[in-house]
Amino acid sequence: PANELKARFDSSPEELRQAVNGICDEASRLEARVEGIVVDTFGDTIDREMLSEELAAELDAKATQAALSDEAGARVQSDKALADRLTANETLTAQKCEIYCGSYAGSWDGDYSHSNTKTVSLGFQPKAVIISSSNASNIAGYGATLAHIAVEDAASPYVSITSTGFQVSRYMNLSANGPFRYVALK
Fold first, then answer.
1. Mean pLDDT on 2-21
2. How big, in percent rounded to 5, are the helix, strand and coil portions of the chain?
3. Which one of 79, 106, 155, 166 counts the least CB within 10 Å of its CB?
4. Residues 163 and 129 reside in one and the same domain
5. What is the model's pTM?
6. Measuring CA to CA, which residue among 183, 36, 26 is closest to residue 98?
């Protein structure tokens, strides 16, 4: 047997090459058959039932952790967006409207021609002004206390907005029935 083995090893390289090629060809045929069996048996997908319990549990834990991380990230982004919106709204609300209240004394000169006016300076141009007699007197015989309103770009015959305050006219806003109260919205 040792001589046969030695003879076998001493055989020509061509025989050895043919033997190795034969083994490789057989391995390729076997691989193709096994691949066909796997495709026929399982298709192209591997589902959970094919995995061991330990591997399935590990994959489930990783999927759960990934979902929790995604949710935590989404919550952080959502909380930040909400905080940013609240801050912006608080800033806008604070700037929305300032209210200034005050009074002015009447200064009617007895002229019913409605040419007499009085300018009340506030130091800013209001968006709206509401004026009324402060003592609830019967202004000009109307039987009720009247309030007059002026809004930006819409003056009334009794009160109008100026760049630094407002201007009142007509005897009912300038009479001795004053003082008159106003509310100015900035």
1. 74
2. 50, 20, 30
3. 79
4. yes
5. 0.44
6. 183
